[in-house]
Amino acid sequence: MKKYILNKAEEIISQTEELEYESISVHDFLTEFDYATKYLPRFLKVRSFALYMLFFKRAYYSIGDRKIKLKISALGQNMLSNFGNPMSKDVVKRGINDLVKFGIVEKLHRPGKINEYIVKLPSEIKAIKKLIKIEDSIEESIYGDSEDDILTDSSKRNEILKRDNHKCFYCLCELKAPDFYLNHIHSKANGGYDWKSNLVSSCRTCNTVKNADSVNAILLSNLKKGLILNTEYLEQKSKLDKLKAEYQNVKENLGNIP
């Protein structure tokens, strides 16, 4: 999914005049901005996070250089308290100290001169790198990099077939690649995604029935028809519940997307 989003961003950027900065491209700016808003609030206080975003904007958007000069008083003017007043110098200093301690901002000592800082990117911080790696591994192992190719990519389709023991999820008849179908547990019409945890293998007959019924309804129907045993129904129902839980977990890990 991340690749899909970035590709769309590239498409939009390609249609506009891209600003060439010394330290970062517009594409990377969007990516790092996403990392900042997604991960930094987990480590920084609200005040410190707001300060970093001011640093980030000035360094990578306004002037295009990771080394910037800023007056503490000017930073305070850009940050209002709960009462609508500019933040005091002491409050701003504490926020900057938090950023320096976390390692995302480096303060250069220049006695008697305007404060100078080196603003690091979120992806340069060890703790953020770890979170990015975890998310990437979730994307790759659970639903792949793209929603678009999992229904057509033979290797990804076969991964689901292998997970389902080369059997139709509904009637347990034997299936062989490439003669099988993939069905959504949560239908796309109801907002379901093309993720591995939301797809099951199906034979032609059950695929036709699935167009009108839910996965569990088909399992119950096949049980009543004698196509599967009660023990098999309970086993498939258990697998279905696990897939649903995994699907929900992925959504939560990605920030409670709709």
Automatic annotation (TrEMBL):
Q: Which InterPro entries match?
A: HNH_5 (IPR029471), HNH_nuc (IPR003615), NA-targeting_endonuclease (IPR052892)
Organism of this sequence: Cyclobacterium qasimii
What CDD domains is this protein classified in?
HNHc
User: Could you list the residue ranges that cross the membrane?
Assistant: none
* Domain annotation HNH nuclease: ranges: 155-208
Record's protein name? HNH nuclease domain-containing protein
Q: Which GO terms describe its molecular function?
A: endonuclease activity; nucleic acid binding; zinc ion binding
